[in-house]
Amino acid sequence: MIEDRLRWNKRYSEGRESVLHTSLTRFYHLAPKGRALDIACGTGETSLYLAKKGFDVDAFDISDVAIRKARLKARREGFKINFKPVDAELFSFGLSKYSLIINFYFLNRRIFAKIRRALKSGGVLIFETYNEEHLSINPNFNPEYLLSKGELIKAFGDFEIIYYCEVSNTTTLVARKP
Ligand SMILES: C[S@@+](CC[C@H](N)C(=O)[O-])C[C@H]1O[C@@H](n2cnc3c(N)ncnc32)[C@H](O)[C@@H]1O
Q1: Can you give the pTM of this predicted structure?
Q2: 173: which of 42, 104, 127, 161 fits an S-S bond (Cβ 3.0–4.6 Å)?
Q3: Could you tell me which of 150, 147, 176 has the C-alpha nearest to residue 27?
Q4: How far apart are CA 66 and CA 60, in angstroms?
Q5: First CA to last CA across the chain, in angstroms?
Q6: Going by CA atoms, what residue is nearest to atom 2 of ligand 1?
Q7: Ligand 1 pocket check: which of 62, 134, 146, 147 to mutate, most ligand atoms within 8 Å of Cβ?
Q8: How far is the CA of 96 from the centre of ligand 1 (A)?
Q9: Mean pLDDT of successive 10-residue segments in the chain (178 residues)?
Q10: What domains lie within the chain, and their CATH numbers?
């Protein structure tokens, strides 16, 4: 969506940078080594972290400004990461391709089925984003982008749930595809 790209490009042009999330550093090692996918990767900190840990990383984000920054960072540090500036709904996820899929602070329910198919059996999904409680902190946040209670458990309930936590305005799921 053009408006989303423009909105996020503006934020990244104004200096926004992505950050490393604790649930990544805490749980990434549960995934078998192989190919990892970083969904809505922003400026690529997660992707770079995973590349340093030995994963082959694909990553995408709708913001071409963020992807440019991410590519620059990876090049400077000597890592080859496959960054793509593309809308989540247009990305080609593939089938049983990834050992690890990361989805941080991005929510598009229309890609849930693609995430499920793209994970290898034994592969791990780490999904963390805001839930409905976020409205009490930021009443202007678009509710469409907020998880309801238990939503990730319902969506990935047939996976082995390694960790699930709804605390304050954030929900975290770590799950393994059977
Ligand atoms: C809150 S940021 C999270 C970035 C990163 N995952 C992190 O946790 O630091 C949301 C990201 O989603 C990206 N985004 C928004 N809409 C998108 C879409 N339709 N397809 C792909 N990326 C999108 C934005 O450009 C932004 O980088």
Answers
A1: 0.98
A2: 127
A3: 176
A4: 10
A5: 34
A6: 105
A7: 62
A8: 23
A9: 93 95 98 98 98 98 98 98 98 98 98 98 98 97 97 97 97 98
A10: 2-176 (3.40.50.150)
